Amino acid sequence: MEMKDRLIIFCILMGSYLGFYFAFPLFPTIFLNSNYHFLPEHYSMGTRSILLGLTYTTYYVGAFIGTPLIGKFSDAFGKKRILSITFLLVCLMYLLSAFAIQFSSLTLLLIIRFFTGFFDSCYSLAYSTLMSMEKNSKTKLPNLEFWTTLVINSGWIIGSFIGWNLISHPSLSIASLSIPFLAASTIYLACFLLISIYFTGPPRKLMTKLVFDIAPFFSALTSFKHASLRPVLISNSSLYAATFIFTSYIPLYLMKQYNFEPATLGTVEIYLSCSYCFAPFTYWFYLKYCSRKEVMGISALGTAISLLLLMTISFKGSLWVFLCMTSYFGALGFSFSAFLVSDSSPIDQQGEALGVSQALFILIEAAVSFLCGLFAAVWIYLPLIVAVGCSLFSAVWVFNRLLVRPFTRPFARPLTFHL
Question: CATH number for the 1-212 domain, one of 3.40.50.2300, 3.20.20.140, 3.30.420.40, 1.20.1250.20?
Fold first, then answer.
């Protein structure tokens, strides 16, 4: 029973990434290409970039608001029920998005993207359900982090490849461009059926009443008052901002700077996701010679250098190398971010600290999506320059605050990675 539920969670984690990346390539295509007439033809490229950033932002604002609420509902009504309902609602949101694309309604699309992000918090719920199952399981799955990373990135690879190639044909009509949303809707519907029919899930905890408060929305900010956690949250957030800028705006950069076609961008996404998958295989090497704090600093510095090379060396052959380097170093730092948060927080507050870290990441996604849309409208290099600044700041912060002035509380024993 436990193995069956694990497989189902792995399937829906992959499915959520498949659905997201099926539809993601469509946004820069229809916003920046005036031939599709989604936006009025007289809109400048700067205005189009700003609206693209705004569309990204609405999704992440919805996710930031929805994540704690959906988590609260799952505690009250059971994880299986809330998982199935939210996957079905995301299915409906992608279906409505297809109609918004067909009728060229930006306002409707923005509203739908907000609620897509709100209900797409089912991904976080699925992941937390898996963690809860493993914690209470008598037969634990070895190397859970590795298998989870492998499943998620498989969805990224397949979804990006298919998504970019679905829109690569130059003669597609605006009506045909709704196909990626219909495909994503179908995937979420399949996840809904899988959960409803076959998933057992952990037993529901009995709650006398459902209480809501505004604490989840402000805990990410108030957590900075904890001296032991503040340096880690700052370094993690800064590096995550850099990596999120890179993954979100590299298609826009390549389309404008190198005139990449959608099919080529699909290949780029595969390269990025493969290098991201490679990071878990190198854990053991770094931890053999370095602490987790040192690895975080190396990751931040490597990300900054890779981005600088990407912007300054325009030779196409080297472009692929720098893209992979940036993705790899970003993945390496992100992989250790949760461990640093856990190590720097008291044992009885680790769950709350990890939740705060996740809330910060979602908040960063929302802010970065909008601000970098503005930056890209001013200068296509500006978002990547901001990413370099964020990664350099993270590196300096780590080496100065976490290494030169370490915590008084000792760090946990380094993680040993076994395949």
Answer: 1.20.1250.20
